[in-house]
Amino acid sequence: MSLCDLTVHEVLDLIKSGEVSAKEVRESVLARIEKVESRVCSYITMTPELDSDGAFHGLPLALKDNICTRGVRTTCGSRILEHFVPPYDATVVTRLKAQGIGIVGKTNMDEFAMGSSCENSAFFPTRNPWDLDRVPGGSSGGSAAAVAAGEAMWALGSDTGGSVRQPASFCGVVGLKPTYGRVSRYGLVAFASSLDQIGPITRDVLDSAILLSVIAGHDPLDSTSAPVPVPDYVQDVRRDVKGLKVGLVREYLGQGTEDGVRSCILKAVEVLTDLGAHVEEVSLPHTAYALDAYYLIAPAEASSNLARYDGVKYGYRAEGAVGLLDMYQRTRREGFGEEVKRRIMLGTYALSSGYYDAYYLRAQKVRTLIRMDFQKAFSEYDVLLGPTAPTVAFRAGERTSDPLSMYLSDVCTIPINLAGIPAVSIPCGFSGGLPVGLQIIGKPFSEAIILRAAYAFESSTDHHKNRPALTGEGGEA
Ligand code: GLN
Questions:
Q1: Half-sphere exposure of 213 (CA within 13 A, CB side)
Q2: Which atom of ligand 1 is nearest the CA belonging to 140?
Q3: Residue 367: pLDDT above 80?
């Protein structure tokens, strides 16, 4: 193992005891990027001049390319923003910088965060470090692949329907989607504003708690950020899980869930039971409607948010247009990719007069039913469990021609966004040599509890210690 394969808390200990310098760690990450980036393709833009001041010594973080960075282009994986350089930093970026966390690069993603495989990036696909023929998941696939491959010590992604948790699951790392309102969205390029949240992607649970502590908290610049006090996640994570009431979500283990995934989850249940948790099956009866509701609500919000890309104030503008309407049309036709256009059309349709009640309004009612499923479950249980995704990482190209099969990879994550609650994906084993993610779901603002359950599981297992062979010393790399 190289320094870049350790966790952040491990290297902080080594730096503190004087065994290594922060500079050595940063150089180790840069050397790894040099070695594997041409195969993994995690980054759209590199920003390797790392500032070494502050509590975290410039330890390199990979930032999803839909989070605005002053003076550094923020493409959102889209042609339409290919040359867009934000004049300001997102609030999370300001917070990272204040703690001395260095941004090593902006990571690849599905265009406007619409996708589950990174194959919808306008630039190139990212590969899964565990198997280069497979996808890293999406839409934060570049961030998850970078952390798994040692190309960053940690990362931030965004999660609208699973985009932090699903790639974390596919790449064998930890991905946390905080409660809606826990982390500021100021400077996150909007996809579906009532669902989007920024979340940490790390190599273990303690690092996740550390990074969440850095980014969580109220922000007057985001009216949806919640004025709720931030607990000490790092301290709380170490408490045990004796007597914790855990519900295993029946619907997430149903049809469509691979046997290899199911057996890892059931083994995880045994581990938690041995640790003193009480695990029972629970039903979330409206789960079957979550995907349909999401694919009306998210595109509806997207169609409205993406109306701003019209070639006038910023971003790409088509050449050779005759008149304003022609300019709008050409700009959007040339600037957006297939999936983004599909969502804009779906969303515009769902919101249009005559269809609003039948689609958008009904989807919002279903959203309420889904939220109530969770409320009911949480009246009996402290946390809920299930797989993060029904399968392990699929092969590149396997689902690109069938949007529905792509959408299905988020069946277990989307309900959580609709309900606005937090969930974390942690490594819980392998199926056919590929990582499986365990999803732990909590009540609003109970990040401390889900992280505690995750930490207890992690502390009594070794899954999170595996690193892909691609990066192994003396291996292919
Ligand atoms: N894969 C889902 C979608 O395509 C979720 C994406 C996300 O969370 N940003 O919409």
A1: 19
A2: 9
A3: yes
